[in-house]
Every structure is written in C-alpha cells, then in structure tokens.
C-alpha cells in the first residue's frame, strides 16, 4: 500500500496527472497519480513507459523494481514525480493502459468555464491578450437578446474591459473582431493544455499531430 509522506511535494506528486489509454492505446481519460496507483495495484492497468522511441509495458511489481533501481543509481530528473512509501520508492508513471477497457473514447467534453478558458488559451478573444482566471469572463458572441445560446460555438473568453465594451451587441455591431471562430474542442482541453509542457511530453505519442498543432 502506498502511503505518501507528509509535505507539499508528496501531496502534489499524488495529484500529478496520468494519461489513461484503452486496450488499443487510445487516450481515454486524464487521471490523478493516486487513481493510477489504485488501478495498477489491482492489476486493472499497466504502466506504459516511452523509452528511446519505444513503448515498454510494466506491471505494478516490475514498475516498483525499475523505480528502485533508478533511485539507487540516482537517475531521477526534475521533471519526474516520486512517491515515498514505507517500504519502497516509486516513480509516478506518466501513462497507464487499461488492460480490459476496449471502448473507443466518446470524446465527451464538459462544457464549462474552465474548459472554455483552456480552449482559448486564457486569451481574450477580442483584444487577444492573455489574462488570469480572475480577469477573464465569458461572452456570448451572439447575445442572448439576439437569440444566442450557451454552446461551444457561441461562448468565448473575454477580458472584463472588452466584455463591457461589447455589451449586448454582436462583434460586428461593436466593431470588434474575434481572434478565432469558437468551436467544440476535438479532445479534452486539459489533455491538450498539459501535453504542451515538457513534463508530459510523452503524451504526444498518443495524440494526433492535428490535435497538437491545434493547441499551439
């Protein structure tokens, strides 16, 4: 049983993101390290490690052995997350494969504030500047007073200044131009956001080139 020691580092390591693949190596979910270890310990999943361009498959016990060897030879890197249990040290895997899950991902993506901000790269779609979450708001491209609804195609990120300036008008009426046409993401925005970071670079082996270009 893995029991993380106290401290911010251990806590954050347990919450690190892990890409879960189905049996045919297609991305299904982004889960926490804690959830991944639970699946591994029950033999529901295996670790997929990308090493020199090849995929290596490890069951839970093998991954523990590999982790202990890497720790013994001081092969850790700053981009990795590690968990220290009572009896052993283990590296947090970046990818796991569900051994008995054959379903094709249905790409159901939650329509919510967070995913819209991620889709739009935290950038106001009118002035094109990046902002923090607290400085961003949601704007109806076609206002509700004009029949505009709540959908991926009609809601964009906007800074408060631009949202106020636009008011209850369409972009053309307000003399404002959208940075890009809003659309439903083809993949979970969280995955596409994290795959840009070097920490999760190995995820790029399981995401299409088209999707990678779309998130740049």
Please explain how this structure is put together.
There is one protein chain. This protein is an alpha+beta fold. It has two domains: 8-98, no CATH class; 113-174, DNA Binding (I), subunit A (Orthogonal Bundle). Helix content is 27%, strand content 20%. The protein contains eight helices and nine strands. The strands form three sheets. It has a five-stranded mixed sheet with strand order 2-1-7-3-4. It has a two-stranded antiparallel ribbon with strand order 5-6. It has a two-stranded antiparallel ribbon with strand order 8-9. Strand 5 and strand 6 form a beta hairpin. It is elongated and about 65 Å long. The protein starts with 7 loop residues before the first helix and ends with a helix. GO terms for molecular function: endonuclease activity. This is HNH endonuclease. Residues 124-146 form the C2H2-type domain.
Short description:
Keywords: Endonuclease, Hydrolase, Nuclease. The chain contains eight helices and nine strands. By secondary structure, the chain is α+β, with helices and mostly antiparallel strands.
- How many beta-strand runs? 9
Strands in their spatial order, largest beta sheet: 2-1-7-3-4
**Number of domain units:** 2
Rg calc: 21 Å
- Residue windows where pLDDT falls under 50 for at least 5 positions: 1-8, 212-216
Task: Tell me roughly what share of residues is in helical segments.
Answer: 25-40%
Secondary-structure element order, N to C: HEEHEEHEEEHEEHHHH
Tally the helices: 8
| Largest sheet descriptor | 5 strands, mixed
Instruction: Please state the structural category.
Output: alpha+beta
N-to-C CA distance: 39 Å
What would you call the shape?
elongated
Mean pLDDT: 88
């Amino acid at each position: 049983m893995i029991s993380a020691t106290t401290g911010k580092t251990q806590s954050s390591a347990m919450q690190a993101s892990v890409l879960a693949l189905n049996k045919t190596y297609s991305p299904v979910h982004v889960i926490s390290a804690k959830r991944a270890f639970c699946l591994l310990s029950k033999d529901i999943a295996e670790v997929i490690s990308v090493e020199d361009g090849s995929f290596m498959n490890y069951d839970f016990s093998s991954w523990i052995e590999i982790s202990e060897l890497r720790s013994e030879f001081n092969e850790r890197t700053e981009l990795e997350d590690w968990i220290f249990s009572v009896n052993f040290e283990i590296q947090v895997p970046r990818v796991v494969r569900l051994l008995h899950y054959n379903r094709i991902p249905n790409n159901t993506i939650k329509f919510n504030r967070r995913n819209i901000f991620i889709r739009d790269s935290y950038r106001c779609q009118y002035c094109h500047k990046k902002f923090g979450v607290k400085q961003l708001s949601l704007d109806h491209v076609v206002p509700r007073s004009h029949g505009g609804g709540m959908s991926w195609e009609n809601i964009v990120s906007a800074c408060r200044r631009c949202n106020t300036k636009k008011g209850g008008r369409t972009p053309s009426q307000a003399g404002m131009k959208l940075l890009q046409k809003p659309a439903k993401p083809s993949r979970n925005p969280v995955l596409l956001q994290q795959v840009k970071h070097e920490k999760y670079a190995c995820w790029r082996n399981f995401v299409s080139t088209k999707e990678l270009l779309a998130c740049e």
